[in-house]
Structure formats: C-alpha cells, structure tokens
Amino acid sequence: MKPASLVPFATLAPVQQYLQATEEATIAWLEDYLRLPSVSANPAHASDMAATRGFLVERLKAMGLDDVQLLDGGGEAAVFGQWLGAPGRPTLLIYAHYDVQPPEPLELWRTPPFEPTTIGDHIYARGASDVKGATAIALAVVEAFLRVHQACPVNIKVFLEGEEEVGSRSLRALAERHRALLSADAVLSADGGRASAEVPTINTGARGNAQLEVRLRCAHKDLHSGRYGGAVRNALHEAARLVASLHCADGTVSVPGFFDGAVPPGEGARADTAAFPYDEDAFFADVGAAPHGEAGYSARERITLRPSLDVNGLYGGHTGAGGKTIVPCEAVIKLTIRVVPGQDPGQIIRAVAAHLHEQTPPGCTLEVTELHEGARAATLVPAHPLVRSAEAVLTRSMQRRPIHVRLGASVPITAIFKETLGIDTLMFGYNLPDEDVHAPNEFFRRSSIRDGMRDWSALLEQLSHFAPADFTIAMAEET
Ligand SMILES: [Zn+2]
After folding, report:
1. 162-184 pLDDT, tens digit each
2. Which of 88, 130, 175, 150 is nearest to 420 (CA)?
3. Which domain, by its residues, includes 223?
4. How many angstroms is it from 77 CA to the middle of ligand 1?
5. What is the pTM of this model?
C-alpha cells in the first residue's frame, strides 16, 4: 500500500535544538526516576514498583501519548502508551524496563544508590546505566517531536517492562495477552549498550540456545565398592566418558550433526569481527583462562559466529564430607548448546541426544530432558530497515561506518518479541561497558544522553523513509 499522506519529514533540526535546550530538564526527570527504588527482585519494594509505574504513567500522559495504561501479564505490570498519528508510516515499539537490580552490598557504594549524584560526566545511581538513562533519552526524543511538530516521524508504542531483572517471567504471557495492542513493524530497544564511545557498532543478532539435562543410570541402587567394585559399570566413570566424547582434544565439538545448518561466517562478518575493538589478551587475562576452541577461528569468532556446547554441571555419588565406599548408580550431566543462524535448536538437541544414546554402554539407561525449549539465533539482515537506518544515522554522527557485531549470549526479549509478535528488535542502547551495571557505583554518562538524543531523534526520522512493507520483506530474507 502506498501511503498518500506521506510527506517528507525533513524537520529534524528544530527537534534536536529543542532536545539541547531542554537537556537539563531531561536530566532532572532522570534524577527523579532514579530516586524510585524499583527493585523487582525484592518483595519489600512492591510499593516502590507501583509508585514507579504511577510516575511513568504520568510522564507518558504528559508527553502526549494516548491510551496510557498498565498491561498485566500475571507479574509486575508493564507501562504502555502510544501515538498513532502517522498513518501509512511504520510503527515502532520502543522497549525499556523500569525495574533495577538490588543495590546490595550497600557498604561498597560511595554515594547512596537511590540518591543520584553527579560527579563530572557521571551520574551515579542504581539503574542509571541499566536502563533508566537510555529510557530518559528515548522518551525525551518522542516528546520533543510531539512538542515541536505535534507529530512523530513514525508511529510510536512505548512499552516499559517491570521484570527484566528477574528473567522477564511474565513477558511472554503479557505479549500474547496484549498482542493486538503491541503489534508493530519492529522493536527499538533502549536496553543493550554500545561497545565503545568512539567506534560505532550495530548489533545484528545473537546466538540462540538450548539446555539439556542428562540422567545416566547404571544400577538400581548405589553399590558397595568392596562387593561390586571392578565387576560392574560405575555411573560416574560412564558419565565422564560421555562428556569426553562431546569434544575433540582441541575443543571442537565432535557430535555428528552438531554443525548442521550453521551458515559459515562470511567475509563481511569476519572482517567486522576483526575490526571490533577487542583486546583478546585482556579477555583471557581478566578471568585467568587460557584460549581453547575450534581451530581456524579467533576467540571473538568462536563466541559470536560459531555454535558451542558446554557442560554446566556433572555430579553423582558421594559429594559430602569424608569418604563413602560406593559404586554410584546414577550421574547427572547438565548441558548448554549455543546455536548460530541457520540452525534449528530442536534438531541440534536431537543430534546431541542421539550421540549420547549411541555412546551409552549396554546395561545403562540414559534419559535426556530439555530444560529450555530452545531459541533460534536472532538475526537482522543488512537490508533490514532497522540496520539501514542505524547505519545511516551512526555514519553521519560518528563520521565512520559502523561495525556489525553479533552477541554470543541470547537476548530473551528479542526471542520473545520475535515468537509472540513476529517482529525484529534493534538494540539501540547508550550505556558503555565500564558503567558497573548490576554492581555498586553504577553510573551513566551525561555525554551519552547528549549522543543518544542526537542519534535516537535521527533514527526515528530515518525510519520514516521506509514503508511498513519494507520490514516484512526484510524479515522474509532472514535465515
Ligand atoms: Zn540488567
């Protein structure tokens, strides 16, 4: 459908001037927001969570959003508001979360965690970096368009979750229950940070994952090692052999079919990974670990572009104090699988289970349980309007082409929005890696607020050059 009402929206400059002129008010609002101890993990903060919702409802109404309301999914409600005054233009769901991590240990804070304190460029407070700072950016930008032009370049739905720091327990139920209200062409997330303030990056995806629990039984009960030892199979010996069969000596996964479907990293992805500011020596030295893994790939490539398989736990027999002369009858192995674009996690789970069954000796039984149904790798194709828009904006503002980066760990909200609403997410957060997220003395940079407002306003304008159908076409190209 070709929207007749589409007029060029080339009026970004007055919006950016407004954002600059009102920067102090934006920071003052952020400080009020940071004073609210919205700790989702601690039930003692239930009334603070409610107060935070009330504070956000007032803000969304005051900035001119419609249908402002709380969305209930069975846990902490989300705060929602929308502006749909741009028919024919794309609809962006702006995501952030209003809950924060607990502030403990309090004695390690140099300033009170819920009394925002500015020192130089840093604003110290729990939640400043994760993710109230970037939320202030996103809301200020939408408000600036509505104040200056009485219109946004695209349709906007604001969705602020209350359970991100406790595993987004009810997000899936909430998204399913309110599917119609949340329907959009794409998600723009204020959560998810920048790799560096100098080198622009665009997050184009993350590995998917699956989790298994394996139970191996070799006898009806634990046996006396004097009466049976040497004549029967020991469940722990067999479990150790099973675990050893999962990898080659160099660390490459040796399970048949494990790499099936994995799209080999292209030239572009490898060049981007090499260009990413990343100190490999420091990466290992920081954690006191040594490099180990699939030959032919850098550490960064191994954790972002290649599948992996890890044993997370292995136990059985006597683990208490002192000795116990038994031949254990049962062993448990816990596994995590990380998959890359092109792979079906269900198929990889079946390949691992088939390999383990094949390796199980006669007389022993193996039971494989999926702990986590598995999520595919998230991918934004280069032609996706989110990627093209972010590329245009960052190239202009940073004077260099952004590097496409992928994450090694999965991003739950990305998978949930893709599965429930069928749409892609761009992480466009403005925090930086050194801001002590989840730790004492968390801070956000005032300069990031300035950079973020400049880039978020340009991004919304840039996205208005696409039609809603462009988002559907781009998604069809994803693997
Ligand atoms: Zn967090």
Report:
1. 999 998 989 999 999 999 999 99
2. 175
3. 208-262+307-375
4. 18
5. 0.86
